[in-house]
Automatic annotation (TrEMBL):
It is found in: Cytoplasm. Residues 2-64 form the UreE urease accessory N-terminal domain. The keyword Cytoplasm applies. Involved in urease metallocenter assembly. Binds nickel. Probably functions as a nickel donor during metallocenter assembly. This is Urease accessory protein UreE. Its main location: cytoplasm. Belongs to the UreE family. InterPro entries: UreE, UreE_C_dom, UreE_N, UreE_N_sf. Keywords: Chaperone, Cytoplasm, Nickel. Gene3D superfamilies: Urease metallochaperone UreE, N-terminal domain, UreE, C-terminal domain.
């Protein structure tokens, strides 16, 4: 089994891919497989959140690209900025990881699929659709430099670590 303990920030091209959904990318200790089928063990610093486009270095020197796997999501849109802002507020109040984006049609927010939250979003006036896509939520309050003293030191922190972040 290949051991991976190091993030890689150099310019070398990756020769392997590690395809993980967001929940798996929040684990600093994980036994999984590369896209090639080779078994790997992740032993990263506690609190590390991997993003699509990040690179890792295997114990044997290989460079591994992190790929965000498509997962079941809900996308909420509204023609009214106030309604979309209210939806984002209520999701944040529930500590739900949210990806914020836009396209030629409008602004949107995405969350991992959850039927209770879907009902809430519809009740707040959002147009909600289901889709399968990579999930790259906002760094938010858990980015470097923002801490709550009442929270434990082992709490996961979402942060940007370089690479392509959707």
């Amino acid at each position: 089994m290949l051991l991976i303990e190091t993030l890689y920030t150099g310019d070398a091209s990756a020769t392997e891919q590690l395809i993980l959904d967001f929940d798996a990318r929040t684990k600093s200790r994980l036994r999984t497989t590369l896209a090639s089928g080779e078994e790997v063990g992740l032993f990263l610093p506690r609190g590390t959140i991997l993003r699509g486009g990040d690179k890792l270095r295997g114990a044997d020197g290989r460079i591994i690209a992190v790929v965000s796997a498509p997962e079941e999501l809900l996308e909420a849109r509204s023609n009214n900025a106030r309604e979309l802002t209210r939806a984002a507020y209520h999701l944040g109040n529930r500590h739900v990881a949210v990806e914020v984006g836009s396209d030629a049609q409008s602004d949107w927010i995405r969350i991992q699929a959850d039927h209770v939250l879907e009902t809430m979003l519809v009740g707040l006036g959002a147009q909600v659709r289901k889709l399968s896509a990579p999930f790259e939520p906002e760094a938010g309050a858990y980015a470097p430099g923002h801490h709550h003293s009442e929270r434990g030191a082992t709490e996961a922190k979402i942060h940007v670590m370089g690479g392509a972040h959707g």
